[in-house]
Amino acid sequence: MKRSTQGLTAWGFAALIAIGISGPAQAAQCGNTSSGFGSWVEQFKKEASGAGISQNTLDRAFKNARYATKTISADRNQKSFKLSFDQFMQKRGAATIISKGKRLKKQNAGMFDAIEKKYGVPAGPLIAIWGMESGFGSFTGNQHTVSAVATLAYDCRRSAFFTEQLYSLLQLIQKGWISPDFKGAAHGEIGQTQFLPGNVARFGADGDRNGSINLGSSADALASTANFLQGHGWSRGGGYQPGQTNYRAIQGWNAAGVYQKAIAKIGAEIDG
């Protein structure tokens, strides 16, 4: 993930949350085809301008925004979550993630020890998420993020949720933390562990302690993921298999049961 020239300190993230925008959720009319997207954008920009997003930010953010057909296709065809557990593990390359994950745990022992000391989350589930979300940072997405999030905000299926994500994304752009033409995953996920914009603002952490938060950095992405899990109830020293104390925090990461079980299984294999 590219870091802006301004950067954003940990204090800046706290301020970002504190000044959170509370504009109208979705007065613009949603739609399920591309035909109404342009009109929706214009109406949304009016609402966002009245809710504290500057005109300059809106102009820059939506200059190259288009209806994202690939995002809609991905949203309608998340077939891997319907696989059996064994099929899902095979499709996600679980054996490779476990093998490489063990090596990465050893190579970065100091980083993982520091994260566990601060957040109480061991290396295993963090590495499982890292491997499944981006192949350990090898691919973090190639879709125009504003287009992806705006399309999902316009789309009627989950309009309210993604309208909130769009406001968060515009805040990040307004703060200068990411470029208006930043590219990420199909649903607007950002960085090596694929945070939605709202979670970047809420849980972003400076893992490498360089004064800025950059989810393209493995240290920042993993610390942010640990912070997310802690924020969803992770209890230091507790187990994280199904039925154990911390499994609920894993459930907060992804709603698909097969994905939750994969994190727990892969994490346990890595942690030994």
Automatic annotation (TrEMBL):
InterPro entries: Lysozyme-like_dom_sf, MltB-like, SLT_2
Source domain of life: Bacteria
Signal sequence range: 1-27
Record's keyword terms, sorted: Signal
Domain Transglycosylase SLT residue range list: 37-240
Protein's name according to its UniProt entry: Lytic murein transglycosylase
Organism name: Hoeflea ulvae
